[in-house]
Design brief:
By secondary structure, the protein is an alpha/beta fold. It folds into 2 domains: 2-31, no CATH class; 46-208, Vaccinia Virus protein VP39 (Rossmann fold, 3-Layer(aba) Sandwich), CATH 3.40.50.150. It has helices at 2-15, 19-25, 30-34, 36-42, 58-65, 81-87, 100-107, 147-154, 174-183; strands at residues 73-77, 92-97, 114-118, 136-141, 158-167, 187-193, 202-208. α8 (147-154) links the parallel β4 (136-141) and β5 (158-167). The longest helix has 14 residues, at 2-15. The radius of gyration is 20 Å and the shape is globular. The termini are far apart.
Length: 216
């Protein structure tokens, strides 16, 4: 009897077109659980508690979150909420920014294990310009500069078992990205779907070699 009543209620809710309302109030709503509504109101990338969240697809965030460890080092081309998010999970985060105003603002927000470096031309930045940065487990390409050129330079900082994370791979530069990474022997996993605060879908791609620190 209860099952029949439940099915009848759900039929009525669907018939009345209450999907958007259910997404907002239902306790099992995915968008509610990941904090999309809060991020949309706040106009920033955050989770349901207001904590910073990488501005990637939710599936990509979950994938990376399961694999990062306290021993890892991260290099970002373009920083933001992801800088703070990674700093809470890894040993060190180094962020390169070519916007001086944003670099100064971000620098005031990050913890001690994260550093923000203003670099006018990120696509030509190398270790000789600012001391030896060493090698990183993860390199993130999430900037507005020449992303292909930044990735080529970023590969110089990547460990042999390291992974590269590209955001916004659903754009016109995807064929060039794919070709570049294949030339360097990388495989890829793409995660399409919703991103914090955005209405349209996005795509984030993780590139990895056969032997990699993510274990994929």
């Amino acid at each position: 009897m209860w099952i029949a009543v439940k099915e009848a209620v759900w039929w009525l809710l669907r018939k009345c077109g209450t999907g958007p309302l259910l997404l907002r109030v239902h306790p099992k709503s995915f968008l509610r659980q990941v904090g999309w509504f809060r991020s949309f109101r706040a106009r920033r990338s955050c989770d349901t508690d207001g904590n910073p969240l990488p501005w990637w697809t939710y599936a990509a965030v979950a994938f990376v979150d399961e694999r990062v460890t306290r021993e890892m080092r991260v290099l970002e081309y373009g920083g933001g909420a992801s800088t703070i998010w990674f700093a809470a999970r890894v040993a060190e985060v180094v962020t390169l920014e070519n916007n001086p105003v944003w670099a100064r603002m971000l620098e005031k927000q990050v913890p001690a294990n994260a550093s923000v470096r203003y670099v006018k031309d990120m696509e030509v930045f190398d270790a000789t310009m600012d001391g030896d940065l060493g090698k990183f487990h993860i390199v993130i390409i999430d900037c507005l500069a020449n992303r292909i050129a930044c990735a080529k330079k970023g590969l110089e900082f990547l460990r042999e078992d390291g992974c590269i994370i590209w955001d916004d791979t659903n754009g016109p530069d995807w064929p060039a990205i794919q070709q570049l990474m294949e030339e360097y022997g990388f495989r890829s996993i793409s995660f399409s779907g919703m991103t914090p605060q955005e209405v349209a879908g996005g795509r984030t791609t993780v590139f990895y070699r056969q032997d990699n620190s993510f274990g994929v």
